[in-house]
Amino acid sequence: MTVQKPVAVVTGGAAGIGWEIGRRLAADGHLVIAADRVPGLTGSGEDAGILWRELDVTDPAAVDRVFSGIEAEFGPIAVLVNNAGIQRHRGIEDLSWEEWTAVVDVNLHGVFACLQAAGRRMLEHGGGRIVNISSVSSRGSAGRAPYATTKAAVIGLTATAGAEWAARGVRVNAVAPGYVDTGVFRHGVEAGTLDLGTILSRIPAKRLGDATEIAAAVSFLVSDQAAYMNGQTLYVDGGFMVDY
Ligand code: NDP
Fold it and tell me: What's the ipTM?
């Protein structure tokens, strides 16, 4: 008899942190679908059977269509990880409207579209788990206004959805990573708004995070061990948020 695996959708799961989250959830026993605008899977290492579906999270109609297709093919979405995110690096006075809206579209509107589309389905199916990826930049980050703003908004949305759906079996929590050597961080270093030496001096653990350490927190939050957690944000940052 084939045992049906719970379906986990990871947005932006083709690369970086999302890729490692997918690998961890697959190892935990999920059927993982990386929903990404990047064609195919570009993360390194054994892919653990992760499937890919094309999705641009800024298009709510596409989100609905892709989620319906996934459910028709594989069964109810049990887990959503809202991981897709982008950066634009510029001071507020020089930031263009296009740069502002590009980040808000992916990091906030995209997160809401996926949370709502998956949440509605989970409520219908009687339960589910959602993890939104925020950031330590949610406390404010010079040169990255839209990024910091959207990552703070994600914490508010997480708390609100966590409270609204707690009694109906849908748990919503967030993970706020510190600095990890993947796409979003590398763009900052290349753009000159993130300086590796300065950052390392401000991290009590004196090292960058590893994507597998972010994935471990997501794995915990979607597991039954976190059954009493709703609306929370877990910081995985080597102590960065401590006043140090
Ligand atoms: P990456 O750029 O390595 O991976 C993000 C993936 O999401 C890429 O494949 C990207 O595609 C995809 N993506 C971007 N926009 C969309 C979209 N509209 N629809 C679907 N997929 C999209 O980023 P990271 O792994 O570094 O970051 C992952 C998450 O972690 C982000 O939310 C980020 O903000 C957060 N984070 C990262 C930190 C870090 O230090 N790296 C620290 C704190 C939080 P494309 O390449 O085309 O953009």
Answer: 0.99
